[in-house]
Amino acid sequence: MRLPVPVARVATASALAAALAVPAVGAVGAAPAVAASKKSTITLSGSTSVFPLASALTKKYSTLNSKVSFRVAQGGSDKGITDASKGRVSIGNSSRDPRADDPKGLNFYKIAKDAVCLITNPSNKLANGLTQKQVQDIFSGKIRSWSEVPGAQQTGTISLQARNEASGTLDAFENLFMGGDSLSSTAARLGSNGLIQAAVKRDPAAIGFVSIEFLGGVSAATYQGVACTTGNAKSGAYKGTRSFWMVTKGAPKGETARFINWIRTSSAARRIVVAQKAVPLK
């Protein structure tokens, strides 16, 4: 299991507003006023899970602050964290928690929570859902046939679809679902949530795991008797829940700090988080 990072590296709202000398957003949904200057570009890279939310947030913020433009790329949480640590981007997007082996000098700002859903092909809806033991046995390779899974509509060999090592969703899945068991070497390793979604959608024998934003055309299984929904993630009933983070090298400054502060404090940003099926901080 990967070791958790010391709590001191996880920045709080008061630290962002006070220690960074960033004014809190006053008017509901408004971006902070900025002095006349040339346009600033905020660059982001990283998590494919955070990407839809980050894209929606940057699009809205651009309409509120004409002096800021954005470039948003993907590549996985580890790429975002590495890019931020090397100064390649202003913000690294991560869907995994900080780890002790992350580069030094990073600040992690929580922006939302997200549910990781277990998905199968629509022709193979799991009537009984899955327990943690079943998930461990399926993804470790101990259970290899759908005939061994009560409630499955298929009977053939299970096709495992998983994320690559750069993925924060993989990190969350291993920590939340696998209980220390290793992922089977037979699992396909894919580079994004969308690729897993597409693979499961076209393969009746497939099973995978994705952010809740990627459920179109697939069937989400209940986990430990609880459906994978935003409401159940918010209440804590659904246990496959993780955090979304924005990561900076040291304390963010200027427009980057204002943008992160807006995400964490404004009503407009909160509405976007909800619309993207994530769970807001408050």
TrEMBL record:
Keywords: Signal
Disordered: annotated span: 81-103
KW Signal (keyword) present: yes
One of the Pfam families matching this protein, by short name: PBP_like_2
Domain PBP intervals: 35-263
CDD domains per UniProt: PBP2_phosphate_like_1
Gene3D superfamilies in alphabetical order: Periplasmic binding protein-like II
Protein name: Unannotated protein
Organism encoding this protein: freshwater metagenome
